[in-house]
């Protein structure tokens, strides 16, 4: 009589413990704050038992960037600045995004630059062979 009760209790509590998911976090690395948030999010999910992989498409290796401590990190390193679509223009657009007065057309151009950069990263990431990937 005790065995069915123990089995039921184990199944009831065991199901709650086995709810892990495989999660991919795509970090497009626009700014340090966004990357730090995504990295922290991945680490928290990993701490709670999920299998998390952070995919960073492109990284400017001349700057310090946050890496997850508990999640798996897959990054395609680009040290060549030609991999970026005019990094100086992107940097200026990032700086001007929050400091200028609201101009709908200007904001649309800035958002268009970010969208083009994301599309370029996705296209290049899609073409990467497994041998080019570096697991950190």
Structure overview:
The chain is an alpha/beta fold and 136 residues long. It has one domain. The protein is 51% helix and 18% strand. The chain contains 4 helices and 4 strands. It has helices at 2-17, 32-47, 87-99, 104-127, and strands spanning 22-27, 51-60, 72-78, 134-135. A 4-stranded mixed sheet has the order 1-2-3-4, sandwiched between helices. α3 runs antiparallel to α4 (104-127). It starts with a helix and ends with a strand.
Short summary:
By secondary structure, this protein is of the alpha/beta class. It has helices at residues 2-17, 32-47, 87-99, 104-127, and strands at residues 22-27, 51-60, 72-78, 134-135. A 4-stranded mixed β-sheet has the order 1-2-3-4, with helices on both faces.
């Amino acid at each position: 009589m005790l065995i069915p009760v123990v089995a039921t209790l184990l199944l009831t509590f065991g199901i709650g413990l086995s709810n892990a998911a495989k999660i991919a976090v795509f970090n497009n690395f626009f700014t340090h704050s966004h990357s730090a948030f995504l990295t922290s999010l991945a680490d928290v999910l990993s701490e709670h038992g999920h299998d998390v992989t952070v995919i960073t498409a492109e990284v400017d290796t001349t700057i310090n960037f946050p890496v997850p401590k508990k999640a798996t990190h897959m990054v395609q390193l680009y040290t060549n600045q030609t991999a970026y679509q005019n990094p100086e223009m992107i940097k200026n657009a990032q700086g001007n995004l929050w400091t200028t007065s609201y101009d709908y057309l200007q904001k649309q151009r800035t958002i268009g630059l970010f969208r083009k950069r994301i599309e370029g990263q996705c296209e290049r990431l899609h073409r990467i062979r497994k041998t080019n990937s570096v697991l950190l």
